[in-house]
């Protein structure tokens, strides 16, 4: 059976945290819906997590989301739902706190990238976005400023509006989780 592409509601409204949907397919622990507010990840940003809720109050936990080559978004369930669910209407609910944290980190990393490229000629060599922390790596060939002494400010920069903390991982050292 050919499954139509999932309507991606997050493209229309990035603050869409819930939606009604119809189950189109079940494949082991994967479920496809006609539409979804769940982001399947990409560009370094992790996929959404959450639950699907049936009208009788039962729920299934969604632990990840991914998109296939046909643009069908597959919601990875913690359990193996029954194929008998095809055609049923459900309520999809994203873990809103997690999504908002990821959105904030995603935005601030773009700001940091823009400032570093513009002011220091630094190119990104790696990024990791998580709900609790994020990191961004740069290749800085001509960078002379030592972040241990603070972040240099320029009028109208984001540094004027927010307090910041910088951590210096000297040459050859690595911080990892």
Strands, total number: 10
Structural class: alpha+beta
Distance between the termini: 42 Å
CATH level 3 topology of the largest domain? Elongation Factor Tu (Ef-tu), domain 3
Beta strand %: 25-35%
Strand order of the largest sheet: 2-3-7-6-5-8
Tell me the major beta sheet.
6 strands, antiparallel, barrel
Q: How many individual domains?
A: 2
Please give the radius of gyration in angstroms: 21 Å
Name of the top-level CATH class of the largest domain: Mainly Beta
Approximate shape: elongated
* CATH hierarchy: architecture of the largest domain: Beta Barrel
Count of discrete alpha- or pi-helical segments spanning 4 or more residues: 1
Series of H and E elements: EEEEEEEEHEE
Residue-averaged pLDDT:
85
Features:
single chain, 177 residues, alpha+beta, Elongation Factor Tu (Ef-tu), domain 3, 2 domains, 6-stranded antiparallel beta barrel, disordered C terminus
Describe the fold and architecture.
The protein has 177 residues and is an alpha+beta fold. It folds into two domains: 7-94, Elongation Factor Tu (Ef-tu), domain 3 (Beta Barrel), CATH 2.40.30; 100-160. Helices cover 14% and strands 31% of the residues. It is built from one helix and ten strands. It has one helix at residues 96-120, and strands at 7-8, 18-27, 30-33, 35-36, 50-53, 59-67, 73-77, 89-94, 123-129, 134-139. The strands form three sheets. A six-stranded antiparallel barrel has the order 2-3-7-6-5-8. Strands 1-4 form a two-stranded parallel sheet. Strands 9-10 form a two-stranded antiparallel sheet. The protein is elongated.
């Amino acid at each position: 059976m050919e499954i139509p592409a999932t309507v991606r509601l997050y493209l229309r409204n990035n603050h869409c945290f819930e939606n009604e949907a119809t189950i189109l397919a079940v494949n082991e622990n994967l479920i496809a819906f006609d539409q979804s507010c769940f982001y399947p990840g990409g560009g370094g940003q992790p996929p959404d997590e959450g639950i699907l809720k049936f009208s009788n109050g039962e729920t299934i936990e969604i632990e990840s989301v991914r998109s296939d080559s046909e643009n069908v978004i597959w919601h990875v369930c913690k359990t193996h739902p029954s194929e008998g669910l095809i055609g049923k209407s459900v309520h999809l609910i994203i873990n809103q706190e997690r999504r908002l944290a990821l959105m904030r980190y995603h935005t601030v990393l773009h700001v940091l990238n823009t400032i570093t490229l513009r002011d220091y000629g630094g190119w990104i060599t790696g990024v990791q976005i998580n709900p609790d922390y994020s990191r961004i790596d740069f290749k800085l060939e001509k960078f002379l400023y030592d972040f241990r002494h603070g972040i240099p400010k320029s009028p109208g920069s984001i540094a004027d509006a927010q307090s910041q903390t910088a951590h210096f991982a000297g040459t050859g050292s690595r911080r990892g989780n």
